[in-house]
Design brief:
By secondary structure, the chain is of the alpha/beta class. It has helices spanning 16-29, 44-55, 57-64, 95-99, 117-126, 136-153, 170-176, 191-203, 207-216, 225-228, 231-245, 264-272, 336-356, 393-403, 431-443, and strands at 35-40, 68-74, 91-92, 106-109, 130-133, 157-158, 182-188, 255-256, 275-285, 292-302, 314-321, 325-332, 378-387, 408-414, 421-426, 429-430, 447-456. The two termini are 49 Å apart.
Length: 462
């Protein structure tokens, strides 16, 4: 598939401001004309997109009603060795020239990050191109700009691949549940951290050893910060919350905690109590329905909870809606081929819209619900204390809980003498009250140390 020079009928130049609209009209009269696709990025995901477009060309054309033609692939370095069979003639380092070509209909962006992805997407939209992207970071940080441009230009913006890889999750939230009221979205949306925590649980490995294994298998990057510190999951949580609650949510609105402080002792203690530790993304309406909470943090869940059985690098998300009830989405949340599958699904939808001269659903933020601070979130805590083994310890600890209106659900003591550990699980209370309780416990002379603090979610059901 060779690039085509950017010119219109009889060779005249096309005005970028009307190129998209004119192209739609022309294709309505010429259904056999190929739809031309520009690809930004040819790494793990991009190379798989090229492969699938080539291998499934006939099926894609039949599903869409017109063939797809790869017009060009923008890369940073031409000489870099790439997976798959990518025609070198399609490669270019001039991404801006590629996305502003008059003959390009659709732009797929899989380079990630904020810039130059944002500028390239906006430039493509200005020329009437529809967009398929997997860029969770950009959508979570500056979705207002990207969605606003798509609306002004009358083009599509599809982003199924930005959350949970191949799992069809965003379109059900965006379209299938558009007539319902979503109360909560809860799930595991980062395969790297789930793999690490699963190995710590199943083998007793330390965080460092489990991370090294994940890196050796390609589940974790050389620099795993975005995953293990929760940045990746927070961006996804922002996107999920915005779609679920029809309200503007950015990554900055998400309370975020990573898993780097989780120890093998924490995991073993949870296991002994019949719990497992998972990094969860939790998006929920407040009880009065006037605000939403969006958070990402490690939490203990009962082993009877459906999410407890999500192993290795898999993702799983529960959606709880007023009429539809509880829905579960499960599958591979990352990887080149799974993510490319989601990209191709969006590509088919956008291409069909292009041929019909229409576009899919636009961003919906009509509800405009505020994001309440983490302190107002109601949750439970699991607390482990290193305490002096003498009379009155439990009473003083209980008094500190009562001082902040937090009741204790269960308590047990492990060990004796200098090795005494007091383990408590609270009833539901505001996160602010629980945090104040922990601060107070640290000041007690009978408490040698607060060895572990973790939120508890679930009661065996999602």
């Amino acid at each position: 598939m060779k690039p085509v020079e950017p010119e219109g009928p009889q060779g005249e130049s096309l005005d970028p401001s009307t190129a998209g609209e004119r192209g739609r009209h022309e294709r309505n009269g010429d259904p056999g004309r190929p739809l031309k696709v520009a690809l930004l990025g040819c790494g793990v995901v991009g190379s798989q997109v090229v492969r699938l477009m080539h291998e499934q060309a006939g099926d894609l054309a039949a599903r869409i009603g017109a063939p797809l033609e790869l017009a060009g692939v923008a890369v940073r370095r031409l000489a870099r060795k790439r997976d798959g069979d990518v025609d070198p003639a399609l490669l270019t380092t001039d991404a801006e020239a590629l996305v502003t070509r008059d003959d390009v209909d659709i732009v797929i962006e899989v380079i990630g990050g904020i810039e130059p992805a944002r500028s390239l997407i906006l430039a493509a939209m200005s020329g009437g191109k529809s967009i398929v992207t997997a860029n969770k970071a950009l959508l979570a940080e500056d979705g207002a700009t990207i969605h606003g441009s798509a609306k002004r230009q009358g083009v599509d913006l599809y982003f199924e691949a930005s959350v949970a890889g191949a799992i069809p999750l965003l379109r059900p939230l965006r379209e299938s549940l558009a007539g319902d009221r979503v109360h909560r979205v809860l799930g595991i949306v980062n395969g790297t951290t789930n793999y690490i925590l699963d190995k710590m649980d199943s083998t007793g490995a330390s965080f460092t050893d489990a991370l090294e294994e994940a890196q050796s298998l390609g589940y974790a990057e050389a620099d795993p910060t975005a995953d293990v510190e929760g940045f990746d999951a927070a961006a996804k949580a922002a996107i999920l919350a915005e779609l679920a609650f029809h309200s503007r949510v950015t990554a900055a609105d998400v309370h975020r905690e990573g898993i780097t402080e989780i120890t093998a002792t924490d995991v073993a203690s949870a296991k002994a109590m019949g719990y497992v530790i998972k990094l969860l993304a939790i998006c929920a309406r407040s009880e009065d329905g006037r605000s939403v909470g969006v958070r990402v943090h490690p939490a203990m869940i009962p082993r009877s909870h459906p999410l407890a059985g999500v192993r290795e690098a898999y993702n799983a998300v529960f959606v709880e809606a007023e009429s539809a009830g509880q829905l579960m989405f499960y599958g591979k949340g990352a990887g080149g081929a799974p993510t490319a599958s989601a990209v191709l699904g969006d590509l088919v939808a956008v291409a069909r819209n292009r041929l019909a001269g229409t576009h899919g659903p636009q961003e919906s933020t009509y509800a405009d619900l505020p994001v309440h601070p983490m302190g107002e979130t109601v949750t439970r805590y699991h607390v482990s204390l290193d305490v002096a083994d003498k009379p009155g310890v439990l009473a003083r600890v209980a008094d500190m809980f009562a001082k902040h209106d937090v009741s204790i659900q269960t308590v047990r003591q492990e060990g004796h003498g200098d090795d005494a550990q007091l383990v408590l699980v609270s009833h539901r209370a505001s996160d602010a009250a629980l945090s104040a309780t922990i601060d107070g416990l640290r000041e007690l002379d009978i408490v040698r140390g607060v060895t572990s603090v973790m939120r508890v979610e679930g009661d065996g059901t999602p």
